Structures are given as structure tokens and as C-alpha cells.
Design the sequence.
């Protein structure tokens, strides 16, 4: 991670730690957006059933592939932070990733709905 602010480094690190604590995938970087999927993986996954966006989307795709029996191989790269434009990160995307990981695991599905009504 080159030119990344410390806050972004920490958020990425702890997001992956959290996702692995809940999902037990063993993927070092669950939020990484630079990836390749074999055609067989994309043909196997019901892409219409993928419901999340943002970081939760990245996690959900990896989790769905893993749960479908595919092996996830990580190849380290040096990711240079953008020089133009802005991050799409928002409270909504953060909230979706936090609760979405729990939902992916099948936990507290009803509590998530209740919290969304209350908030």
C-alpha cells in the first residue's frame, strides 16, 4: 500500500480481521478489489443473489466462491493510492460491510432488519 493514509490502512486491516473472525475464510485481504475469477467460479455463483456493494461486495464474492468449494489464492501486489478522484467510502458502505458480514454467516438476520427500522 503506497501513499495510503494511516486511517485507510487500519480500516482495511481491521475489516479483514473482522471478516475472518466471523466467516473463517482464511483470506488475508477480504476487502481487496483487484482480483481474478476463473470462468467456472462466475458460472457457478448465482450473481443475481449477490446483494451487497462496496467492500461488502468484495467480501461476499470471495465468501460465496469459498462456500462453493473454490480455492482462493492471494497474490500480493503493491497498490498505489489514487492521485485523482475521491473514495466511495461512506457510513452506509461501512455499515453494510459490518452487518453484511454477519448476515453472510447467517447470524442475527432478524436483528439487522430491526436495527435498520430503528435507525
Sequence:
Amino acid at each position: 500500500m503506497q501513499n495510503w493514509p494511516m486511517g485507510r490502512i487500519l480500516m482495511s486491516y481491521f475489516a479483514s480481521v473482522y471478516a475472518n473472525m466471523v466467516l473463517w475464510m482464511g483470506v488475508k485481504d477480504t476487502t481487496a478489489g483487484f482480483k481474478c475469477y476463473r470462468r467456472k467460479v462466475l458460472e457457478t455463483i448465482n450473481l443475481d443473489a449477490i446483494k451487497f456493494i462496496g467492500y461488502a461486495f468484495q467480501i461476499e464474492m470471495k465468501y460465496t466462491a469459498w462456500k462453493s468449494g473454490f480455492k482462493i489464492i492471494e497474490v500480493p501486489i503493491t497498490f498505489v493510492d489514487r492521485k485523482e478522484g475521491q473514495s466511495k467510502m461512506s457510513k452506509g458502505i461501512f455499515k453494510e460491510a459490518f452487518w453484511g458480514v454477519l448476515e453472510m454467516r447467517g447470524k442475527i438476520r432478524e436483528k439487522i432488519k430491526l436495527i435498520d427500522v430503528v435507525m
